[in-house]
């Protein structure tokens, strides 16, 4: 199974997969050369996703792809599914769920600018009759803060508050927040700290596990990859800072892959 994201966001998806399907083997591709996807054009994201899958397919016998990124999924998932003949599972924001859970009818949706602008999200927001109650924040800054946190670097609460200011100033703040970027799962505690009341966080992690389980149900021993491999697309000093958190995910090898 190939799992990819522009950064460490997809690790939160991997964590959930490992917890629920312990015997699975995986290749994690950190496309740090192209981080952040949220600032890229749609055509770039589509071409990049195709390039990633094609490159890894040639190198390893992958039987499934997890696009562990809301930005890449909302923009390219439909195209990838048509383009490739292996199962491709994406991470797509499911806003309807928030409607069922909120108690005060105030919902927050936060994602990268590219995700918010994608036709997938725009269609769902305009279709929703309750859309007045969805407060949206489109930001490319929060994923960068998550990258810092995972490397144990300083996180500025002033910057964090600025991102959420629009919601903090509301007379009735959202009680339910949909995290529309896989990076944001690493910041739940910090986001909760800036609000003065308990927040319910939702994301698409569970549904990804459900889809993988469904696929593997009828296909025993479908895993052709026998070890766990961590790939990154660009070498920089920051990769070393990631190594200690990667231990937990039992990677047998860590290496660079050329995507340019
Ligand atoms: N983790 C990605 C997502 O879920 C986005 C981060 C980025 O901007 O690269 O949207």
Just name the CATH architecture of the largest domain: 3-Layer(aba) Sandwich
Give the overall average pLDDT: 92
Q: Please report which band the strand proportion falls in: under 5%, 5-15%, 15-25%, 25-35%, 35-45% or over 45%.
A: 15-25%
* Alpha carbon gyration radius: 18 Å
Biggest sheet strand line-up: 4-3-1-2-9-10
Report the structural category: alpha/beta
CATH topology value of the largest domain: Rossmann fold
- Spans of at least 5 consecutive residues whose pLDDT stays below 50 are none
Helix/strand order, N-terminal first: EHEHEHEHEHHEHHEHEHEHE
CATH class of the largest domain: Alpha Beta
Helix percentage: 40-55%
Helical segment count: 11
Distance between the termini: 22 Å
Tell me the number of structural domains: 2
The distinct bound ligands, ions and cofactors come out as: D-glutamic acid
Total strands: the figure is: 10
- Major sheet summary line: 6 strands, parallel
């Amino acid at each position: 199974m190939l799992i990819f994201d522009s950064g460490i966001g997809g690790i939160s998806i991997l964590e959930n997969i490992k917890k629920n399907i312990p015997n699975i083997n995986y290749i994690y591709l950190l496309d740090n050369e192209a981080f952040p996807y949220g600032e890229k054009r749609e055509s770039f994201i589509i071409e990049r996703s195709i390039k990633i899958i094609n490159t890894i397919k040639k190198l390893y016998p992958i039987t499934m792809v997890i696009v562990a990124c809301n930005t890449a999924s909302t923009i390219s998932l439909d195209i990838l599914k048509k383009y490739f003949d292996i199962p491709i599972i994406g991470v797509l924001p499911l806003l309807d769920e928030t409607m069922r859970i909120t108690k005060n009818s105030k919902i927050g949706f936060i994602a990268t600018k590219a995700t918010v602008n994608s036709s997938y999200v725009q269609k769902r927001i305009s279709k929703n009759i309750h859309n007045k109650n969805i407060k949206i924040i489109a930001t490319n800054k929060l994923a960068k803060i998550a990258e810092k946190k995972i490397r144990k670097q300083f996180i500025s609460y002033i910057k964090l508050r600025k991102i959420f200011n629009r919601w903090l100033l509301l007379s009735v703040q959202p009680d339910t927040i949909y995290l529309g970027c896989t990076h944001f799962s690493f910041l739940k505690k910090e986001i909760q700290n800036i609000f003065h009341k308990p927040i319910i966080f939702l994301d698409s992690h569970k549904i990804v596990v459900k889809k993988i389980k469904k696929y593997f149900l009828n296909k025993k021993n479908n895993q052709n990859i026998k070890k766990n491999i961590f790939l990154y697309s660009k070498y920089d000093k920051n990769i070393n800072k990631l190594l200690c958190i990667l231990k937990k995910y039992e990677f047998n090898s860590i290496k660079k892959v050329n995507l340019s």
